[in-house]
Amino acid sequence: EVQLAESGGGLVQAGGSLRLSCEGSGFTFDDYAIGWFRQAPGKGREGISCISTSNDKASYADSMKDRFTISRDNRKNTVNLQMNSLKPEDTAVYYCYVRFGGQNYWGQGTQVTVSS
């Protein structure tokens, strides 16, 4: 069974940093690109970043590319999202994502709250 589990969310002051992690299981982790999305209250799900299988290609939403960094450790089946210079508008539930076997899989999400 494909599973994704996010961790690392919490409450942080504006300007602070958080590091989110996504651990995958039930599939050959090395073979799949992994993405991060977020959903703020009352808004739709927003793409943040995606990383290729071999860690050599990453893409970011324009509004986050100067503050967020995605990386992966295939030995630990983990993708990390380092978030710096956080703003109150970054408050959201953050999800990781994989498309496997023609289906979309999401983790349960981790809450990030940035206070002003």
Describe this structure in words.
It contains no helices and eleven strands. It starts with a strand and ends with a strand. The radius of gyration is 13 Å and the shape is globular. The strands form two sheets. Strands 2, 4, 5, 6, 9, 10 and 11 form a seven-stranded mixed beta sheet that branches. Strands 1-3-8-7 form a four-stranded antiparallel beta sheet, with no helix packed on it. With 116 residues, the protein is mainly β.
Protein traits:
116 residues, mainly beta, seven-stranded mixed beta sheet, four-stranded antiparallel beta sheet, 11 strands, 55% strand, globular
Q: What's the helix count?
A: 0
Sheet with the most strands? 7 strands, mixed
Q: Strand-residue fraction?
A: over 45%
Order of helices and strands: EEEEEEEEEEE
Kindly, what is the distance between the CA atoms of the first and last residues, rounded to a whole number of angstroms?
40 Å
Structural class label: mainly beta
Whole-number average pLDDT? 96
Shape: globular
Total number of strands: 11
Uncertain spans = none
Rg over alpha carbons: 13 Å
Secondary structure: helix percent: under 10%
Give a quick precis of the structure.
The chain has 116 residues and is mostly beta strands. It has strands spanning 3-7, 10-13, 18-25, 34-39, 45-51, 58-60, 68-73, 78-83, 92-100, 103-106, 110-115.
Task: Lay out the secondary structure.
Elements: E1 3-7, E2 10-13, E3 18-25, E4 34-39, E5 45-51, E6 58-60, E7 68-73, E8 78-83, E9 92-100, E10 103-106, E11 110-115
Parallel strand pairs: 2-11
Antiparallel strand pairs: 1-3, 3-8, 4-5, 4-9, 5-6, 7-8, 9-10, 9-11
